[in-house]
């Protein structure tokens, strides 16, 4: 089935038209996020780590999310993570009904956190979440790997390099639609302490594809 959205992040005009670049400076992170840290190239989107000049944090990284929203389907990104500890290389979805689907929070050298969270809309609700840790034999920074999720009304099936690694039964709880997020962030909780000089070490996203479900598959 043909993708309903696909990109190799090679064209600057497509990055500007299809994605919104995030600007933030969160106390929980050791990097702010700035639009200029995400650039297209002939190998994909480069999420650069730079010495910060205009934020509280010492370094800056990058984060982008789609302007368009998508419904049930298969979402897969091909990613080469940064080759340092302390970097959260993340690919996830956020829904209009306040769910966060973590396809991969990948950390050097070989760990990915996968999960689902519900974020309350007011004080009458409570945060809820479930997560899985997947550890691999390969050093995930040595090359590109595929991270994906099949999202149907009934379940979430997560995969890495085409192999299923986790699944959740959702029973129509998540109705979407979703925005797609890609980001790099420095934090001591991301696989180990941030090194003294993380600048120059970044994530690369080679491609992204979204395949929608047929009506008969929903």
UniProtKB/TrEMBL annotation:
<protein>
    <recommendedName>
        <fullName>GH16 domain-containing protein</fullName>
    </recommendedName>
</protein>
<dbReference type="InterPro" id="IPR050546">
    <property type="entry name" value="Glycosyl_Hydrlase_16"/>
</dbReference>
<comment type="similarity">
    <text>Belongs to the glycosyl hydrolase 16 family.</text>
</comment>
<dbReference type="Pfam" id="PF00722">
    <property type="entry name" value="Glyco_hydro_16"/>
</dbReference>
<dbReference type="InterPro" id="IPR000757">
    <property type="entry name" value="Beta-glucanase-like"/>
</dbReference>
<dbReference type="InterPro" id="IPR013320">
    <property type="entry name" value="ConA-like_dom_sf"/>
</dbReference>
<dbReference type="GO" id="GO:0005975">
    <property type="term" value="P:carbohydrate metabolic process"/>
</dbReference>
<feature type="domain" description="GH16">
    <location>
        <begin position="1"/>
        <end position="216"/>
    </location>
</feature>
<dbReference type="GO" id="GO:0004553">
    <property type="term" value="F:hydrolase activity, hydrolyzing O-glycosyl compounds"/>
</dbReference>
